[in-house]
Amino acid sequence: MEKLVIIPTYNEKDNIRQIIGAVFSLQQDFHILIVDDGSPDGTGGIVKELQAQHPGQLFLEERKGKLGLGTAYIHGFKWALARQYQYIFEMDADFSHNPQDLVRLHDACAYKGADVAVGSRYVKGGKTENWPWDRAVLSYGASVYVRLVTWMPVKDATAGFVCYKRAVLEKIELDRIQFVGYAFQIEMKFTAWKLGFKIAEVPITFIDRKEGYSKMSKGIVKEGILGVLKIQWQSLFGK
């Protein structure tokens, strides 16, 4: 048990079977943990059906209600640490993240000295596809804003395609992570950086989802804007 891919889900029945198949087709000994927030569309039931085909490799944690992306990942991180996984990944269910890039993220941590590997849209070689212009402007603007406020040397701080070495998640006080949306991703990277861990960005192509619906909301954007200010304020002046 070395590599675990955590995939949070809410109403992903159109994607879940395919994304699980794509990860296992890599034949790189990845295990998968689905953290499903009580999807009313039956996502959890599909995962249970597939578990029979992948015993000891595919796991499901079901939560009651939509509790937020950040809390889903924290749940998954604790689950992974309790089971001694060495490399823990975050990935979306909707194919906006190419499963084949999991190997590159792993290699950055396993062989190239990174403690955290970020699948980045905004380093050389990274890009986005099929995004509406307003979403692209919002995302890139957010990345610039985060660097200006936090001084963190990460160009894609809101990225949700990440590999963490076990040591990083052991050192971070997961119960003190405050945010659940965009700001969760920023807070995790910022905390790792402040603890002295090395963050590397691996260029990826981010492709807008083809099935299902985006979970982006005004509340998540607001949390990102205000959360970044709070993260830096607390860093500078203490909690």
Automatic annotation (TrEMBL):
GO MF, one annotated term: dolichyl-phosphate beta-D-mannosyltransferase activity
Key words of the record: Glycosyltransferase, Transferase
CDD domains: DPM1_like (cd06442)
Top-level taxon in the UniProt lineage: Bacteria
Record flagged with keyword Glycosyltransferase: yes
GO cellular component, one term: membrane
Glycosyltransferase 2-like domain residues: 5-172
Listed name of the protein: Polyprenol monophosphomannose synthase
Organism: Chitinophaga lutea
